[in-house]
């Protein structure tokens, strides 16, 4: 089996290193200093589960890799529509694309049999079908990441917690290709269950992201600080309650209470969310897939979501003003 990792950042490099350790042929496609370090020293993983180093092939040119059985996308969702030139050399007739993204995926209503919105495009994450044009729908295998990693220095990934990568087909089938990928990930030391109802997992994770990510960017607070501040905790609970209602209207049934979800976030401690880290690094904020699509789904399903709408408005303005010099219009 041949796996190409397009976007070998913290998560992508970690998954690639684990797959390589388990015996899979892995090709990492990376950029700049991270690329040079991995070429010279391999991928060094520092983990409470045990440190290890893997030496997969590393390149910045997908044409060197050629067609793969699986492409693992380690890119942010807002990069999907523009990655076609990099992706094209990796795609054969049966290549599957595994997008380890946060939030609502472009394929969400694909294969959702019996739902009134089956086949509906979500404009926020697939504007004009631009993402589907690049990634397709038939190729998609969903992936929900319960894993936290950071790049400590070029070529060095620190694994903080979690090894679970839930996999699932959009139509709920327990497919042969999903089982093959799961087995390879398990051989590398990861947890990779194949779920018939992956959308439930998407929403369970999204309950946290939809509230904590934008609020952390707006307040500069850590997970623990948001949970311990009474008014903010109440706002988080309201956003999560709205999100649960939207999830059920959109064909999922995430079985977790709001309080349990908040308590789980509090136990993470003084951790900065990915959106706050991106803000501090001057990177674009991953707003559309994490909260924008949820607001769009609220409109499509007729679920009132005032808290989500207000926070979405505020964080969208923050994303805009953070890119504009003071005094500019």
TrEMBL record:
This protein's record includes keyword Phosphoprotein: no
Family from the record: Belongs to the ketopantoate reductase family.
Keyword match Thylakoid: no
Organism field: Amycolatopsis rifamycinica
GO molecular function, one term: oxidoreductase activity
All residue ranges annotated as the Ketopantoate reductase N-terminal domain in the record: 3-104
Protein name as annotated: 2-dehydropantoate 2-reductase
Pfam family, one: ApbA_C
Record's GO cellular component terms: cytoplasm
UniProt keyword terms in alphabetical order: NADP, Oxidoreductase
Residue ranges of every copy of the Ketopantoate reductase C-terminal domain listed in the record: 198-316
């Amino acid at each position: 089996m041949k796996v190409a990792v397009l976007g070998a950042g913290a998560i992508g490099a970690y998954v690639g290193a684990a797959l390589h350790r388990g015996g899979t042929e892995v090709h990492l496609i990376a950029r700049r200093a991270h690329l040079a370090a991995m070429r010279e020293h391999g991928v060094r993983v520092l983990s409470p589960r045990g440190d290890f180093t893997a030496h997969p092939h590393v390149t910045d040119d997908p044409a060197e890799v050629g067609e793969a059985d699986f492409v693992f996308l380690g890119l942010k969702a807002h990069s999907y529509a523009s990655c076609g030139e990099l992706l094209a050399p990796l795609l054969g007739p049966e290549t599957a694309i595994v997008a380890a993204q946060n939030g609502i995926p472009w394929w969400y209503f694909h294969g959702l049999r019996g739902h009134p919105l089956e086949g509906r495009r979500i404009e926020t994450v697939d504007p004009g079908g631009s993402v589907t044009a690049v990634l397709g729908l038939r190729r998609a295998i969903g992936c929900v990441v319960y894993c936290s990693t950071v790049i400590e220095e070029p070529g060095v990934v620190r694994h903080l917690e979690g090894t679970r990568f839930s996999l699932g087909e959009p139509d709920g089938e327990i497919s042969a290709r999903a089982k093959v990928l799961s087995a390879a990930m398990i051989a590398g030391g990861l947890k990779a269950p194949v779920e018939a109802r992956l959308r439930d997992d998407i929403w369970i994770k999204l309950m946290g992201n939809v509230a904590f990510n934008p609020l952390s960017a707006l307040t500069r607070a850590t997970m623990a600080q948001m949970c311990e501040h009474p008014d903010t905790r109440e706002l988080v609970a309201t956003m999560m309650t709205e999100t649960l209602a939207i999830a059920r209207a959109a064909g999922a049934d995430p079985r977790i209470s709001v309080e349990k979800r908040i308590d789980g976030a509090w136990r993470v401690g003084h951790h900065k969310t990915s959106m706050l880290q991106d803000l501090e690094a001057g990177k674009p904020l991953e707003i559309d897939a994490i909260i924008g699509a949820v607001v769009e789904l609220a409109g499509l399903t007729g679920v009132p979501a005032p808290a989500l709408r207000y926070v979405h408005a505020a964080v969208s303005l923050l994303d805009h003003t953070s890119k504009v010099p003071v005094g500019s219009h």
